[in-house]
Amino acid sequence: MKVLLIRPPVPKFTIGLKHIMICEPLELEYVAAGLKDHEVKIVDLILEKNLHKIFKYFDPDVIGTSSYITGVNEVIKICRMVKTWKPNCLTVVGGVQASLVPESFADPSVDIIVLGDGTTKMKEIVDNLSEKLPFQNISGLAIVIGKNKIQLTAKSNYMVDPDKLPFPRRDLLSHLHHKYYYLFHQPVTLMKTTWGCWYKCNFCFNWKVTDGIPYTRSPESIVSEIETIPTKDVYIVDDIFLINRKRLIQIANLIKNKNIKKKYLVYSRADFICENEDVIKIWSEIGLSAVIVGLEATTDPELEEMNKQCTVDYNRKAIQILKLNCIDTYASLIPLPSYTKKDWDRLLDFIFETGLYYINISPLTPMPGTDIWDQYKDKVIVSTKAYSLWDLSHTVLKTELSLKEFYKNLLRVYSRTILNIRRASKLSLRTRPPVLSLTYLRLILGAFRIAFQFIACHRHHLAKNMAKAEYEGPEINKSNMLRFISANTNAEPVK
Fold first, then answer.
1. Closest residue by Cα to residue 300 from 286, 310, 287, 292
2. For 377-394, how does the pLDDT look when each residue is reduced to its tens digit (9 = 90+)?
3. Are 268 and 241 spatial neighbours (Cβ–Cβ below 8 Å)?
4. In which domain, by residue range, is 11 found?
5. Residue 243 to residues 57, 193, 360: CA-CA distances in angstroms?
6. In this structure, are 99 and 189 located in the same domain?
7. What's the number of domains the chain is made of?
8. Helix axes of 72-85 and 51-58: crossing angle, nearest 10 degrees
9. pTM of the predicted protein model
10. Tell me, what's the pLDDT at 477?
11. Any bridge partners for residue 484, and if so which?
12. Residues 6+ apart with CB under 8 A from 420
């Protein structure tokens, strides 16, 4: 059977994405790898156009798509278009948001929602379609039976043993590999060694996606995949890669023994860095160039409120350890809606004091599915259907300052750090190219585009723009749509 996998475009109001980073759709490459007995094509709508032309030429039996929360409405738009073009094409949706809140995709244009990893699940779905078997026999699915209505099949583990997964089908997007980048890492290849997280920060949903159970690959499997990666830069997108010192030393030794020369960008916690400086040194020697660290806050009470299980002293020390090992810190910071100008000043002082250059500021966002959702859901000022505004850049909560002043202060912090070329020259270590280069110019231009988005983003909260952010595309003509529900479930077909 023919399967077309589609990465949706970035929504209009979503801030940041595609201006400073465009990474490959790794989840879809994994799904494609699991469909070795079928004809598969991937289209990346962030970089490619003419979906209708591609669809018409390929003529798929099944389309699969995936997104985070910001892309929900884009996914529904795609599925509605597909049902218009070919009513009997099976539409399947997966990803983090689908696993956490499957009801988000409960639209008549969507046939099946995958709960968990789709690498093996998609194969089961396509095989069942080919053999005309009921989908309800497959565990870990939500079958759409109407608008905002789903029918769950039997529960299943998030995924199989990750060492049994095939390597992702990067070859299907080889024509775009030179366009995938993260800041100054270009071209960059994504890889994953662990699914899930050991920690339970209350603002984060990552640990909940896998029901609190991390799935980890062996060092041998990881290094075998690294050997197949053609690019020099490798972005390991685990929620936390620097976590298990024994495993990290084993991986490092294998990399050394095989004489692999790469540059790595990974995630870590500050406490691990502070307590395992020897491991950081080892990885610095084999190519670790930057670490994304969830610092989150500049006071211990804030960190305690987030259940971060870390301290500001650890944050400061971690930055210095990375600096001593010539590794750049990409710092994640979470300002609270209660922030006054004084709090923003304190945040800026911390950045200057610690010598940070690369920062990402994400206003506290109580995502549906997180521990803090119930605490804040009555204080939300952005519709939960305006998905493109839930991008961790817009504030979705009522702020102490006016919205305009809140965003003005956020932009002030960015402009005094990221847009300060003198700081870039002084504070960047391994990852910054020469200031007078096209690569650096691209990032600065991207940063300015984001700045212009922030200047205007208080207007995104207006009712007319909120309505645009909620738009799911034109309604489909249900009378012309061949549904699979009646044939494959005990539920009533959509009327």
1. 310
2. 999 999 999 999 999 999
3. yes
4. 2-160+476-488
5. 46, 12, 22
6. no
7. 2
8. 50
9. 0.93
10. 66
11. none
12. none
